[in-house]
């Protein structure tokens, strides 16, 4: 079951986010220290926007994806996807794809024309998933992030919703 998370999901959301950060730090932008430093109020405000979706198995949160709409008027037609995370115990069962589909439908329902995402250039599993969901690579940002002193490249991927 996949649904939009709310402030009531705060503790499960925070726990899963930290779990993902520790297991696959390259899949997240924020560091663990930055994530831990986010206050409950900040996270509840984000959750209450209704655009972070959670996948549940037997009432346990096992996966999530976030959709963020552009803020300035000239970016209001765009959305950013991510982070996307499925707990290892639930991977390989179609939840990642299902979360992508729910987020894409939410973007369509909001009237967004296109959705972008960034993915570590070596994350071949996620890149394969995104391509099969209709995302195309529009660039490679060198030195996109510096992780513990090591630069890493990101692929920039885009899906135009009115072309699909
Ligand atoms: C990427 C991730 C979200 C996929 O979740 P999942 O629930 O296992 O994915 P699904 O079961 O829906 O699989 C969807 C497709 O992705 C592909 N895929 C997923 N993980 C893969 C891997 N490690 N290697 C190769 N392909 C993979 C499969 O080809 C699958 O295609 P299929 O439906 O034709 O079989 C999950 O592996 C994860 O959370 N990884 C760590 C965090 C991460 O990398 N997030 C993305 C950051 S941009």
TrEMBL record:
Root EC class: transferase
UniProt entry keywords in alphabetical sequence: Acyltransferase, Transferase
Domain N-acetyltransferase as annotated: residue spans: 1-162
Any Pfam family matching the protein: Acetyltransf_1
Name of the molecule in the record: N-acyltransferase YncA
EC number of this enzyme: 2.3.1.-
Superkingdom classification of source: Bacteria
Lineage, highest ranks first: Bacteria, Pseudomonadati, Pseudomonadota, Alphaproteobacteria, Rhodobacterales
InterPro entries reported in the protein's UniProt record: Acyl_CoA_acyltransferase, Bact_Acetyltransf, GNAT_dom
GO MF term list: acyltransferase activity, transferring groups other than amino-acyl groups
């Amino acid at each position: 079951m996949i649904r939009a998370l709310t402030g009531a999901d705060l503790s499960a959301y925070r726990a899963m986010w930290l779990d993902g950060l520790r297991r696959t730090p390259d899949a997240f932008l924020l560091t663990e220290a930055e994530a831990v430093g986010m206050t409950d109020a900040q996270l509840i405000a984000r959750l209450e926007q209704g655009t972070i979706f959670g996948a549940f198995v037997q009432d346990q949160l096992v996966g999530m994806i976030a959709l963020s709409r552009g803020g300035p008027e000239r970016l209001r037609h765009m959305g950013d996807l991510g982070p996307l995370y499925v707990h290892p115990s639930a991977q390989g069962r179609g939840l990642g794809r299902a979360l992508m589909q729910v987020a894409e439908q939410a973007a369509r329902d909001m009237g967004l024309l296109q959705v972008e995402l960034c993915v570590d250039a070596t994350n071949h599993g996620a890149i394969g998933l995104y391509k099969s969901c209709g995302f195309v690579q529009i660039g490679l940002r060198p030195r996109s992030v510096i992780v513990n002193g090591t630069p890493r490249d990101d692929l920039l991927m885009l899906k135009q919703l009115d072309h699909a």
